Amino acid sequence: MTDSMAAGERITLTRRDMVAAFTALGLGGIASVLVSGCTPRGGDEGIGAAQKVLLGAVAETIIPATDTPGADAAGVVAFIEKMVDTWLHPDERTRFLAGMKRFDADVRRIAGKDYVELPAPEKLRVLTMIAEKEAPPAPKGSVPADGPFVAQMKALTIFGYYTSEAGASEELSLDLVPGTYDACHPIAPGDHAPALGGGSVSLRFP
Length: 206
What we know:
Blueprint: H1 15-24, H2 28-36, H3 49-62, H4 76-86, H5 90-111, H6 120-133, H7 149-162, H8 165-171
């Protein structure tokens, strides 16, 4: 301990100090990642408060609350927002946001109201109708300009829900130390499928 450093005194490092130290060790690239953190991508409007409400209503229609929590209680909207802001490729992000706007306009044209104002049965009817009319898969090597929003929402909602605490431990049965492997174990009505195993959820963004 030096004379200028009192016992218990904290050492404060600025970002400049950190970058300089890592650069001296030949680790400047790592330093730039550590100090920059994970920030949302710019270039578009992103997901605002009204869009979060819409996404929540759509996610809850896809996985509604029953005897187990639905998408809303599982925090799926926060997961989707994080994925869109920091995980999706910029082109995928642009398609998702454009698809969300198109979906909102289509709902108003079909139902005459915002999606969030519709009763639950009407939400399901409209969502199913739009999903059936979404463009078929684009030719190999090309992608649509927007969406397919409903398919994208299904993928993000299912992945977000079944990797959440509620989805993995309440809707599914979570056994961190399972017994012997049984490939053909029957699941009776009322039973919960296992959260771990070959059928674990995976994300494929349309």
